[in-house]
Amino acid sequence: MKPRILIIYTGGTIGMMKNAETGALEPFDFNGIREHIPELRLFDYDIDNYQFRPPIDSSDMTPDLWVSMADIISTRYDHYDGFVLLHGTDTMAFTASALSFMLEGLAKPVVLTGSQLPIGAMRTDGRENLITAIEIAAARTQDGRPRVPEVCIYFASHLYRGNRTTKENAEKFNAFASYNYPPLARAGININYNDTFIHQPPANERLILHRTLDNRVLALTLFPGIRPQLIENVFRMPDIRGIVLRTFGSGNAPSKSWFIDALRSASEAGKVVINITQCQSGSVEMGLYQTGIRLREAGVVSGRDMTVEAAVAKLMVLFGQGLDADEVRRRMEIAIAGEIS
User: Fold this and answer.
1) What sign has the CA pseudo-torsion 328, 227, 221, 217?
2) Catalytic residue at 196?
3) Which tens digits make up the pLDDT trace of 326-335?
4) Which of 36, 82, 228, 291, by CA, is between 20 and 30 Å from 69?
């Protein structure tokens, strides 16, 4: 049987065409996608599309929209072999991370992609990104199983695990990077899959949708000279349940008593504080230096080598499941969707 692929256009540069009269960029109707990209006719696939109306600028992305995307995939899960989700680049890594936690038991490809130039532009990168993303979503192993049964991002000839990816460049075509996990595939003349690093779900895995998210979380980046009043006010905010603390190096932070006391008070009040590094690559090791040890003693949990996007999304999903603070802390230190090495 022909692979059945659903393209979900949420918005972003990839779906824009220039109006010949006004010169303005306007979203085009994906029902006519084969007219804009005739190469799609060469695929022996059944390709359908779903279009968000109006399209969403990715800077306006919200957890409610993540739920809408997950619902589309969940309700159509049995009818398609793979999904290609077109998305703006600015928050694509956040969306990929969130979907990886929301779609528990996923056993089919969900490939996010987009472009730096509109698909109607002469030098667009969107055409190749879309064509290859569709091919990856339809790819099968020799025994008929999906080749990449997880949420991932395809961009500029590289396929990355979604919750290991971050946007690193606003100008170049290779806009994304995965610093702590190797690419799942590289596309050249052939698509070379790195099967060792691709998640393979157990047989007869059942999709479980987590559609309740709790966005009472924040990310705070430390810097030399950060004021005690800022730390104290943030950690005392009554409506905050989770804090992603972006620390120095391998998880270090100020050792001043006011800082440690603020962390301890937040933890005792039931807030979950996650320690991730500001460095692009590497991992938090809270037992390596005295400052890291003091953070753990104050109740801070190691995020190891998680991206900030993954840490924020994971907190939202776990709190959305109604888990208490201790259970959220426990699960934040273990991989539930391949987000931690």
Assistant:
1) positive
2) no
3) 999 999 999 9
4) 36
